[in-house]
Specification:
It is a single chain. The radius of gyration is 18 Å and the shape is globular. Helices cover about 55% and strands about 0% of the residues. By secondary structure, it is mainly α. It binds heme C (HEC). Heme C (HEC) binds near residues 52, 63, 98 and 110.
């Protein structure tokens, strides 16, 4: 959170020196948006997983020995043994490549509707 604000501030400084007042204003106006964009796990992420994934990776069933309702297991992995979620590198974490369908035969959820782009964006952030 803090580093994003700082990034926003330096962005403003760069925009100010290069393009003058207007772009500095735009960058300044965007900075709080960027700060807010960092999703909260319990508030933003968990409901998405609950809706789309808990059916097979939740309290009742654990396909591939993997459950998303227990953080320690969600972060590491199920039978694959590889970490599915890499903190702070969520955009390139295996879990995200599964939901975007980048890995053949590992599309998650395997059937039915894929996640909405906005939901994927939240998980990547
Ligand atoms: C209909 C049941 C079903 C749903 C819903 C589902 N999965 Fe899966 N998932 C599976 C099965 C079956 C496997 C094992 C696939 C394999 O190994 O070939 C698996 C494997 C995985 C793995 C690898 C686990 C390991 O071994 O480390 C991850 C990560 C994963 N799923 C994430 C998700 C996410 C995120 C969602 C929701 C967006 C989701 N899954 C929804 C059935 C499901």
């Amino acid at each position: 959170m803090k580093s994003r604000r700082l990034a926003g501030a330096s962005l403003a400084a760069v925009a100010f020196s290069r393009r003058g007042r207007w772009s500095a204003f735009v960058a300044w106006a965007l900075a709080p948006v960027l700060a807010v964009a960092s999703p909260d796990f319990v508030r933003d992420v968990r409901p998405i997983l609950e809706a789309h994934c808990f059916k097979c990776h939740g309290p009742e069933k654990q396909k591939s020995g993997y459950r998303l309702d227990v953080k320690a297991i969600a972060l590491t992995g199920g039978d694959s043994g590889t970490p599915n979620i890499v903190p702070r590198l969520s955009a390139t974490s295996p879990l995200v490549t599964f939901i975007t369908g980048e890995v053949e035969d590992m599309k998650m959820p395997p059937k039915g509707e894929a996640l909405a782009p906005a939901e994927i964006a939240t998980l990547k952030a």
